[in-house]
Amino acid sequence: MLNLKSVFVIVILGASASVSADEISINTKDVEATLTANLAESMELMQTQLTAELDTMLATDELKKSEEATAQVLLAD
User: How far does the signal peptide extend, from start to end residue (predicted)?
Assistant: First the structure.
């Protein structure tokens, strides 16, 4: 049989668990917002880097084509 002390302890533990659950959900929302902001920032940085690399690759490819065309013209002369 439960005595008054046991009931009191159960009520206190139940209340503290409820408070902890509320605190965890608040912290989770903060963490989620931070992760979302970091993800957006990282994706923007990756897009910028990818664009720069593609521009470099295209410029290099155009330079090679130009050099090949010049070499073919020189050989034809």
Answer: 1-21
